[in-house]
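Hi support team,

I'm opening this ticket because the web form for multi-chain structure prediction keeps timing out on my end. I have pasted the exact lines I submitted so you can reproduce it. The total is 589 residues across two entries, so I didn't expect it to be a heavy job. Is there a limit I'm missing, or should I split the entries? Thanks in advance, R.K.
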Amino acid sequence: MNNLRGIYTIWYRDILRFWHEKMRLISAITFPLLFLFVFGSGLSARMGSLGAGVDFTQFIFPGIIGMSVLMSSFMAGVSVVWDREFGFLKEVLVAPISRVSVAVGKTLGATTIALLQGSIILLFAPLIGVSLSIWTVLALLPLMFLLAASMSSLGILLATRIRSMEAFQAVMQMLMFPMVFLSGVFFPVQGLPAWMNVLVKLNPATYGIAPIRQVILGAPPDSPFGISVLGHTMSLWENVAVLAVFGVAMIFLAMWSFGNQE
Amino acid sequence: MADYIIEVENLVKRFGKLVAVDNISFNVAPGEIFGFLGPNGAGKTTTINVLCTLSKPTSGRATINGFDVVRQQSQVRQSIGLVFQDPSLDEKLSGLQNLQFHAMVYNVPASVRGQRIEQVLRMMELWDKRKNEVRTYSGGMKRRLELARGLLHHPKVLFLDEPTLGLDPQTRNRIWEYILELRRREGTTIFLTTHYMDEAEKADRIAIIDYGKLAALDTPEQLKKIVGKDIISLKTGDSDRAAEEIRLRYQIEARCDGDELTFEVSRGAEFLPNFIKEFGIKILSINLRRPSLDDVFLKLTGREIRQEEVRDVFKAMVRQHGRRIRR
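Hello R.K., no limit was hit. The queue was backed up. Here is the completed structure from your submission:
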């Protein structure tokens, strides 16, 4: 009960803060939309169909959703570092709520905001000729949730170890962009150079982007957009399982690390 | 056991090789104003951090309201209110929202939440500004908001870590009125660190801490008796000769502080007229006073606490303004 109250309060504050800075939402969505419409439309015309009747814009659409969820959920870490910098973290740490509930509340706060951003991008589906049924949307929400929860936990884990804002931002840039670029957001992860193939397959984000794409564009076993690991073509559930293992590990590490900081 | 609200026994806190708190023990009675006095780096904040469960002691034990600070963290946290040395507010939220957050995490029942928040905000004269974002508040307003927040859940013990550092005298006085009023009305125990001597005087008992050790613990009155005698400070054109004459004539060793000599005599008021009459060197100024806590501190630690003050005020300023610039 105590823990639930703690989680809720921490979550509520992050949502409240987000609401105070609604303008941030616009800028956070502009970036992925630029990719989708400018980058996507520009290249689609030249590339034609990538197979299975999907053009380039339609191909990157699920990736862009995954990217904005990923980037937005990383902000959980920023918010912890920020709170430490401004002293507010102290108020949270001496409150009679457990550290674990603080970490979970922070994760859920960032996850909620990430889900909101992902969903807004989802609204643009009709403009690029992707049709979504209500069931597709309902299937996407838990997938986005899983990706967001994993990445915000990773962010929080980093934030408990990296204390200064400058260092944290540097690490984020070094981690976030490679994760996005090497996850199959912008290109099918088949027939890649060997070194890149390894990095893509080791990247947990890959297994977050793939199921989102499989749900939105359909997931026939022989799809040209599938991922194969060690010769095995991953089904939707297998992708989800990999991400879930990563996510659970991150959540526990984040809770442990957050609980042990002084 | 239950006679004390804070019990500290053989508390030690090490950071690697540095011993920040070196085996200190003391008890605080309910309703007491307990002052913790010492220069920077003496171990004041470290002790508070251990008492409020922010850091774990290396050895020894401490209880607050009967709860162990290591094993019963949650109960300890529920029993205490804190006003930190550094600001700890969410500047992007309003004053009201900061208090609402606090009320929620401290489980103030929803039925009395609104009423309590209004009460503390009015007490700190922030009611009119409650809807403004905290970043628009002045330093004094922020500190008052932190105090309001510290009181919101009716803590048994209120920790005030340098509550008035860097504030103007007027705000300092106001904050003190509130603190004393609070103790009168609620019987709250107040644990205070400071290095303003006039603030320390308001405490019922004072612990003087230096290099992590407890140098003295007593009421301000008793502490002043350590110095005991009255203090005379004297300015002449030639301090060396004056000191020499004081030594020969009265067998008193005077201390030289810049161009000023200080020495102690038991009955200053009677001593002074004769001294002025008999003294062979021209006196530029002379001053007689009762011993202050400054003198106690000097006597116990060999250092003057005031020297640090200016630097700290400057540091506090840099801290507040530095933040703003960095944004």
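A quick check on our side: The interface with chain B takes residues 2, 5-6, 8-9, 12-13, 16-17, 20-21, 83, 86-98, 262 of chain A (CB under 8 Å). Let us know if the file doesn't open in your viewer.
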